[in-house]
Amino acid sequence: MFSLSYPRTRSHRLRSSNWSRDLFAEATISSSDLIQPFFITEGNNISEPIDTLPGIYRHSVDNLVKKAENARDLGIKAILIFPQIPKNKKSVDAKESYNSNNLICKAIKELKKHKLDIGIIADVALDPYTLNGHDGITDQNGNILNDETVKILCKQSLTLAEAGCDSVAPSDMMDGRIAKIRDTLEENCFYNTKIFSYAAKYASNFYGPFREAIGSKNFLKNTSKETYQMNFRNSKESIHEIGLDISEGADAIIIKPGMPYLDIIARASDKFNIPIIGYQVSGEYSMLKIASEKQIFNYTKALIESLISFKRAGANAIITYAATDIAKQLMNI
Ligand code: PBG
User: Fold this and answer.
1) pLDDT for 42-52, tens place per residue?
2) Which residues pair with 36 in a beta bridge?
3) How many CB atoms lie within 10 A of CB 238?
4) Complete domains list, the chain, with CATH
């Protein structure tokens, strides 16, 4: 019986030259794999830094257009927008979420006016609009009201579609919302509005900097989202959740957070034949960015390695705050 063993086989042989490492690389990364999230705020000509997310800013709509143009020029195919809503527009019933003149709708309309040829994805959830920072509306005791919330999410999704949004991304983790949102879009003739559903979204500690960025952190102080976001001790449950969202009409699914959850991406990619988007969330970005500022490692190299790991696990696209930084590097600018 012939068996391959040392020294007839040497693992170092194929690793020993650049060309053979490149030729047989299983996973690659390009700017067309990346989605850049942006935070927006009211006003003009504003780009204000966010303490917990070094290098990331809240932009006014005019500045957002310039940033989106820049992302498009770097080969990035889609952007994701999150609004910071002033406190006086937050309410118990989150009604600002479906005001067709709200900040995010203004941003979408402005971006569309510029015909940028870049996908515009809008988050669907109520956390920027509720007084307590929860993704849905709550009763007096702070319990999430699932079915009432889904009705509002449908109104929010329709408003976003009417503003011209290419894809809605429900990140709220309410039960049954994908079916209802899909029906709402179909009934209103938005046949090509995509739904990228956060199908497996875990109740994670890594969202901290994001909550600071949209201004919901202080409100959430004494509570958590564990009653509706997934338990991070579970993996099988993600398959159940993803299956539901696909059957309800999701066009692609988002798994979030990213790096500590690559097992979930790998499992989902084995099981489902639908595009998978991995989300390298705010806390992951901040860790990498702050460690590289302290020169613990090289930012670009560590980022590329981390993004390749998403692709290796089976992600088709990645949401990362570093998208533009990395796209620049990939173009050697
Ligand atoms: C909420 C939402 C969150 C993120 C995206 N949408 C935070 C949360 O669930 O509290 C987190 C993204 C990140 O941390 O980068 N709808």
Assistant:
1) 999 999 999 99
2) 79
3) 23
4) 30-331 (3.20.20.70)
